[in-house]
């Protein structure tokens, strides 16, 4: 075998490995996002039960319940983009947190067995979503690194791969908790 032919084979092998690595990272991101999506669907399925359970007690928070219902309906639409799903997740997380805080103001509701069960189930689902978000963000970081680093960035550009968005916490959750206020 001639030297140029060996070099050509080595270059072809490197290109195939880079291509396969990029495809594997893209598929990993899509696979993990599907897991996040499944867990989010589980949360969205719980929302009607939660709203139905608290509706009669929480007449003053009617707008909050309507907002959660509206966000759920929007999230359940087919063919929404991943970026839109990520944005909706942040809004639903915030709205559900507000409902759980509002429940504290209704002693009868707070003691209701159905509400306690829903709170427990929502807490479990939120933990699952949190774990899925971490896995997704790690896969997206690996993918984004691969499409931006040399030499895979050249092939990623040819394959029309673009940066993917990670899940980020909402601004309200970034604030420090005022412990003093919790005890008042």
Automatic annotation (TrEMBL):
Residues 115-142 form a coiled coil. It is a single-pass membrane protein. Signal peptide: none annotated. Keywords: Coiled coil, Membrane, Transmembrane, Transmembrane helix. It is found in: Membrane. GO terms for cellular component: membrane. It holds the Pfam family LemA. PANTHER family: PROTEIN LEMA (PTHR34478:SF1). Belongs to the LemA family. This is LemA family protein. The lineage of its organism: Bacteria, Pseudomonadati, Campylobacterota, Epsilonproteobacteria, Campylobacterales.
